[in-house]
Amino acid sequence: MAEQINTLPYKANLDVYSETLQRLAETDPNIIAVTSDSRGSGKLVPFGKKPRPDS
Predict the structure, then answer these.
(1) Is residue 6 part of a domain?
(2) Non-local CB neighbours of 37 within 8 Å, separated by 6+ positions
(3) Cα–Cα distance for residue pair 3/53, rounded to 1 Å
(4) CA-CA to 32 of 20 to 30 Å: which in 10, 20, 46, 49?
(5) What is the rounded distance in angstroms from the CA atom of residue 37 to the CA atom of residue 55?
(6) What is the total count of domains within the chain?
């Protein structure tokens, strides 16, 4: 049973959060991210670098 659990394709919460936020922001210019993370561990660097749709 332990071997099966370790092989499942789970992602870390921050990865899912970052990917979801980026995907939603591609079509909604009202989505913003506010974080106290200044070193990138919040995984939002790509979010800040992507072009945003016009509002």
Answers:
(1) no
(2) 44
(3) 44
(4) 10
(5) 26
(6) 1
Domain membership of residue 34 as a residue range: 12-49
| 3-class secondary-structure state, position 41 | coil
Taking only Cα atoms into account, the Rg of the chain, rounded to an integer number of angstroms, comes to 15
Query: What is the distance between the terminal CA atoms of the chain, rounded to a whole angstrom?
Result: 50
Write out pLDDT tens, residues 14-39: 888 888 988 998 888 898 888 776 66
Long-range (24+ apart) CB contacts under 8 A made by 20-26 are 21/47, 22/46, 22/47, 22/50, 25/50, 25/52, 26/50, 26/53
Mean residue pLDDT of the chain comes to: 77
